[in-house]
Amino acid sequence: MQNAEDLIDLLENDVLPEIEDYIDTLYAIINDKKGASEEEKSDLAEMQELRKEFLGMLEDVKSGEMDEDECADIITEIDEMRNMGEEES
After folding, report:
1. Count of alpha carbons within 13 angstroms of residue 41, beta-carbon side
2. Per residue in 41-62, pLDDT tens?
């Protein structure tokens, strides 16, 4: 169950907080400007959907609906996504 525990930790302590921080930042930008551009609206919608997907994934892992191999694959995918994001920054 190590991969499942690692995935739960990654989602709860890294991925979801990062997404929630970004959503908060978008809300602050929108609030400061008293409105949102189409791009900001799109970014916000995408981040909210991504958060929802990761919360569902977290539920699945905690309930045992994901096997260890699936968890390992998802951890790898998340790491790759995060590395791509760092390279773009």
Report:
1. 5
2. 899 999 999 999 999 999 999 9
